[in-house]
TrEMBL record:
This is Alpha/Beta hydrolase protein. It comes from the Eukaryota. Keywords: Signal. Residues 1-15 form the signal peptide.
């Protein structure tokens, strides 16, 4: 009863005015996403995936939660749901996808890892941009960050049993911009002693920090590549410096900061191509090794692209200014990836319209 039915969403999208002969490629990413069925399915490790949509602060938030069936509450509608209290033993890794929504549909954190269930949220934006706007300007960042926080603290306890003191986060590209620019400064006080992996993107805080004391225990890792997009080659080091200074302002020594904040951009490759091959497989590489990087398992990522040795836990102090090579062009230099909708490469015309004018077109 709390969820918007997917059929209703699809009906609303279908009813939206469209030009005669409008193709799927001419629809917005959000319209195309509304046509992808929701429901209950099985994760790669046998867990149950619940894919549904709820309204949070007037915004439609589509979500995926992957957990053992018996950890869901009856209200979720999951067969085999057996949890009664909202408080559980499993943590949750909440993923914010990049522009275009690719990682939401891939759900690279779906497998249970280090007693942590996977959660992915879909941006409530026509282009599926977390924070709305374009490029480094995320005009809806405040509202989106609030909706994410409220979803976790208010909606998730109605669906699945989890430990609300063990919620960690993953950002991918545009999702990393929203996470570092808006969520961390405005909402992180609701998730103390958490961890945030910022993949292929980061912003210095774009809004005032509500409680800087969270930096005393916040684990942050910045992961990029040598061929990162040009604008992000500037933005990521600026974010590293800003968050390092926030921690130092809390009295942390260089050694303490380096234990909490780490950075790596050793792999060759373009935007999010952490394995040196591709965006999708690169993001999966980082998420498969999430516990190794973020939850104390030695900091070694299996399958990271050459010339990296896989060890990514280099402290940020003294390593703020990353060394990049010329940014590789892909999708006309844009951050948008939504192969889930296009069934092919981002060079198709409908996608080019989304990419142009965003970062470098």
């Amino acid at each position: 009863m709390y969820a918007l039915s997917f059929a209703l969403l699809a009906t609303l999208v279908t009813a939206a005015p469209q030009r005669a002969g409008q193709t799927a490629q001419q629809q917005t990413a959000q319209q195309q996403a509304a046509q992808v069925p929701q429901g209950i399915s099985q994760a790669a490790d046998g867990s149950t995936i619940l894919d549904d949509t709820v309204e949070v602060n007037g915004l439609p938030i589509r979500f995926k939660i992957a957990a053992p069936a018996d950890q869901f509450l009856a209200a979720s509608g999951v067969p085999g749901a057996a949890a009664t209290p909202a408080n559980g033993t499993l943590g949750a890794n909440v993923l914010l996808h990049g522009d275009g929504g690719q990682s939401f549909f891939d759900f690279p954190n779906q497998n249970l890892q280090a007693s942590t269930m996977g959660v992915a949220l879909l941006a409530p934006d026509p282009n599926l941009f977390w924070g709305g706007g374009a490029g480094l300007e995320r005009t809806d960042g405040v509202a989106h960050a609030q909706a994410i926080s409220d979803f976790i603290t208010t909606t998730m306890p109605q669906l699945v049993a989890f430990n609300n003191a063990a919620v960690v986060f993953t950002g991918v590209s545009g999702g990393s911009l929203l996470m570092s620019g808006f969520f961390m400064p405005a909402q992180m006080q609701n998730f103390p002693n958490s961890a945030v992996e910022l993949n292929c993107g980061a912003l210095a805080p774009q809004v005032p920090f509500v409680d800087e004391t969270v930096m005393q225990g916040l684990r942050v890792h910045y992961q990029s590549t040598q061929g990162e997009l040009a604008e992000l080659q500037d933005a990521i080091p600026q974010a590293i410096v800003a968050y390092e200074q926030l921690a130092a302002g809390q009295g942390l020594s260089a050694e303490q900061i380096n234990a909490l904040q780490t950075v790596d951009n050793t792999p060759e490759g373009g935007h999010c191509e952490f394995d040196g091959v591709d965006f999708v497989s690169g993001v999966q590489t980082m998420l498969t090794s999430y516990a190794a990087v973020m939850q104390g398992w030695g900091g070694v990522v299996q399958g990271l692209g050459a010339p990296s040795n896989g060890l990514v836990n280099t402290g940020v102090v003294g390593n703020e200014q990353l060394q990049f090579v010329a940014a590789r062009k892909r999708a006309e230099g844009g951050m948008v990836v939504n192969r889930w909708a296009q069934g092919g490469d981002m060079e198709e015309e409908g996608v080019r319209l989304l990419a142009c004018g965003r970062v470098s077109c």
